Amino acid sequence: MLHKIVDIFTSLKLTIVCLAAAMALIFAGTLAQVHLGIDEAQQRYFQSMFVWWPPDGRGFKIPIFPGGHLIGAVLLINLIAAHLKRFRWSWRKLGIHLTHAGLIIMLAGGLFTDLFAVESHMQLANGDTRNYSEDMRQTELAVIDTSGDDLDQVTAIPETVLRHNREIDHWSLPFRIAVRNFYQNSRLKMLSQAGEGAQPIADQGPGAMIAVEPVTHATAPDERDVPSAAIEILPKDGGSLGTWLVSDALGAPQTFAYGGRTWMITMRPARYYKPYSVTLQKFTHEKYAGTEIPKDFSSKVTLIDPERSVNRDVLIYMNHPLRYRGETFYQAGFQKDDSATILQVVHNPSFIAPYVACVIVAAGLLVQFGFHLVGFSRQRGRAIA
Amino acid sequence: MKRFLPWIILAVAGTCIAANWLPPKTAKDDFDFSRFGEIPVLVGGRIKPVDTVARNSLLIIHGKQELRLEGGRRLSAMQWLTDVLFNAPVADQYPVFVVQNADVLGLFGWQQSDRKYFSLAEFSPFLKQIDEQAAQSDKLEAVQRSAYQSAILNLRNGLALYQRLKNSIQPEATEDFTAELQRFATSVPGAATAARQRAMGENFDKAKLDDVAQMIQRYERLSEMAYILAIPPNQLNDEWHSVGNSLLRSVGIGEIHPIVAEYAIVGDAYRANDRTLFNQHVQLVTDWFAKEQPNTTKRASFEFLFNRLQPFSQSMTLYVLAFLLACASWLGSGSVFRRSAFYVLLLALAIHTFGLVSRMYLQERPPVTNLYSSAIFIGWGAVIVALVLERIFKDGIGAACAGAIGFVTLIIAHHLAGSGDTLEMLQAVLDTNIWLATHVVAITTGYSAMFLAGMLAIIYVVRGVFTRSLKKQTADSLARMTYGVICFATLFSFVGTVLGGIWADQSWGRFWGWDPKENGAVLIVLWCAITLHARWGGFIRQRGLMIMALFGNIVTSFSWFGVNMLGVGLHSYGFMQKGFPWLVGFMISQLALMAIAAMPLDRWRSFQAARIPSRGEPAQIPSPVAARQAPTH
């Protein structure tokens, strides 16, 4: 029995089946991007154990194809197992060993990146300073105690927790928060414009005059969901302060007083704070003379890190990112009319893996095919002679 | 005789090409359009000769680089452009705009007939309607547009380009531009005085001010319309300007740029049909550029020469010839035809290389910068590898592959050129020669090898099934070539794909983003890996290898064009829709070949003769298919 399992996991047939399955998956996942958008297709096809049908919540779903993580993991096991079992050192096989060792590093690195890399955005208008970047997809409910002298105390509740419409009880807050009517994506309208029968979901703040309409999940690459929810503040000693509407579409935070302190609540893109700050000096967007073809984008920023006594100007432009303290800042885009720059901030602890893997695999392929070529020309030399 | 035949064929082919390359003779007393065509201008962010502007504009508007009028008269692109620039009322009557869509014709109340070319004059009552309809389809993404919506938008863009061309060197329908400029030059100082007087609250000459104000308005319109920036910088830190803009600036500077004045005389002379004066002042402009802008001028004249030589269409003809010669070599008297094919291919490759290198010089870039140049390069790479195979195996197969792939890729390039300037400036993201030279070149070399392997498989299947010419020895060498080429493809596709990942890591912060073009590249790598492992494991033999190489054609064409047609992702700069039926057709043809190849071996004409036992039965005599190849590891 064990023998059989070992045989299966070390077999070349399994390799071929995995590679073929990967091709089918990538092909389907590429076509799916047309309707789903890159992010959604990526999550369903490549960053999953299975591809499910039907994709929407219709009460049931069945796995119809292995997902990217499953295929990748099986392939990785297959690769490692086959080499452990058959490994015999010989110069002739150097190429093959190198190639496959490189592939193992690459696959493992890819899996690692999928699990641990964090991508976020930092949007800066000229003169703006930020010490945090914002998530492109996740939002959070921030509850801020503003009574401190120098510092605000922020309690951030991620969207994944809000989604369950539960009561949230956190040690840093003197009250509980009951989430009601969470909308993944929504549109806000003034009650007067929302038509008859529209009801507000909140009774405090501007939310009392606003109707919330659910909208389908955004798929276009330049759109993001606008999550909204009604939250009720429940003091721990009983009673209720009322219900507020929180939404990514509402600009300024809303305030209320409780326990002699002033609190602010706001739904905003999830933030990643940094121990340093970035200030935009100037964003430049050049075009070729007489055309609309972009020639160059660049952001001149000042990087200030009091901990490491760093204070310097940096130019971030196409293909020339800023790498600092494990994070990389790329010129990703700009706001209409060049009013602000958008930097992509990536934290990827395994970014070095593909570089190493690439060199090893390329060397392996060269050695391997080089052997073939030399063997082939010797053979031909003999044949002609 | 037989010894010399290949050289004779080569000499004849070479002479034909040389004859095509002779410069067209201009009679002394005729307009010198060639000289005019060499003058550099700035269009689309790039300095190029007027000739390139003429050819590309006519290609966009008319679909060809030459205009045929009723009665059989032919106009070169330069002749047409000169009329558009200087003699718009005549040019308005030329049937240049292509409309084939019945719905678009119906919009104007016209029935579809044999005519597909129409003049501006014919469209003039409908311009507003065209604009409104086009504005509607402009709001949609290219993928969402119907045939009608694409056609009306194309027509609108063609008309807009034409109107802008007409207002590039002078306001359209100007009678005597030289006199107008003189009046402008003399009245500007007076108007300046009047303006000063008005500002000081003194008495001023209102007529003088109004006259100049009117002209300034006219030149403002001209500068907004202009498509061509024809006036070079006069000093350091200056830029190229349109004629209109240069005139507006001359108010501040106090003098009109000499080239503006020269162009005015050239235009007036053209309208007056004064050939001597036209040629004389075109020469003056050329001389001015040669003196003031020597580098620009050199490059522009080279591009002019490049346009005239048309290296890619010349080598296209030679590739066809070589393919036919190589096929003929399999029918009999082999070595003569085979050698002829080889020599002709060397000539074709030399011309192809000249074209490729010229483009690199003109653009100051690595060879592949857009879909058009990828086709040129894929053909070039495949031809070289195929010629190496021919040199080693000497059986006409490499030569046939070189001829076929060279021809097909250049045809594809020809059809990709319809959108205008193939040497266009690069988007900011792509503006990096290191990655263009490594990632893009490696990926396209991988494509070349995949198509070459596919072509070898096509030859194997077609010769094996339909002819008796596939001997065991030939079949074995075909298999060895295919295997070797797939190894080559694996190496380049893999390295190219990973370099692409590293570029992405450098510019977007992620190694892999599942972008369609990335996925297309990795599909090729996976397919190569499957093929090689299946062979090493003994799951496939000769015929299986061929069938898999045929499928490689499908995978590669999907990766090259298919993903661009999806219209999503960061690589969709190469978007094109018109090729869709062709792509599908190609894929179906490859599937059909795979099905044919999968037929039982006794249906293969080449193997019938040898009476090969079917698979499973013990082989009595050595056969190309049953001969199991020793696994290579």
Keywords for this structure?
heterodimer; A: 385 residues; alpha+beta; 3 domains; 10-stranded antiparallel β-sheet; 4-stranded antiparallel β-sheet; B: 633 residues; mainly alpha; two-stranded antiparallel ribbon; 25 helices; 6 strands; 67% helix; 3% strand; disordered C terminus
Approximate shape of chain B: elongated
Instruction: Tell me what portion of residues of chain B adopts beta-strand conformation.
Output: under 5%
Give start-end ranges of low-pLDDT stretches of chain A: none
Helix and strand content put the structural class of chain B at mainly alpha
Q: Largest sheet of chain B, order of strands side by side?
A: 1-2
- How far the N terminus sits from the C terminus of chain B, by CA atoms, comes to 49 Å
Number of strands of chain B: 6
Radius of gyration of chain B: 30 Å
Task: Explain the overall architecture.
The complex is a heterodimer of chains A (385) and B (633). With 385 residues, chain A is α+β, with helices and mostly antiparallel strands. Chain A has 7 helices and 18 strands. Chain A folds into 3 domains: 2-117 and 352-384, no CATH class; 119-129 and 274-347, no CATH class; 135-272, no CATH class. In chain A, strands 3, 4, 5, 12, 13, 14, 15, 16, 17 and 18 form a 10-stranded antiparallel β-sheet that branches. In chain A, helix 2 (12-36) runs antiparallel to helix 4, helix 4 (68-86) packs antiparallel against helix 5 (94-116) and helix 5 runs antiparallel to helix 7 (352-384). The model of chain A has no long low-confidence stretch (mean pLDDT 85). Chain B is mainly alpha-helical and 633 residues long. Chain B has 3 domains: 1-30 and 310-418, no CATH class; 177-302, no CATH class; 430-614, no CATH class. Chain B has helices at 5-21, 33-37, 50-62, 77-86, 88-91, 102-107, 120-123, 127-138, 147-166, 177-200, 206-225, 243-253, 258-271, 275-292, 294-309, 311-331, 334-363, 371-393, 397-416, 433-466, 472-507, 516-536, 542-565, 580-597, 605-608; strands spanning 40-43, 46-49, 66-68, 74-76, 97-98, 117-118. In chain B, strands 1-2 form a two-stranded antiparallel sheet. Chain B has a two-stranded antiparallel ribbon with strand order 3-4. In chain B, a hairpin with a 5-residue loop joins strand 3 (66-68) and strand 4. The chains are: A alpha+beta (385), B mainly alpha (633). Chains A and B meet through helix 2, helix 3, helix 5, strand 14 and strand 17 of A and helix 21 and helix 22 of B.
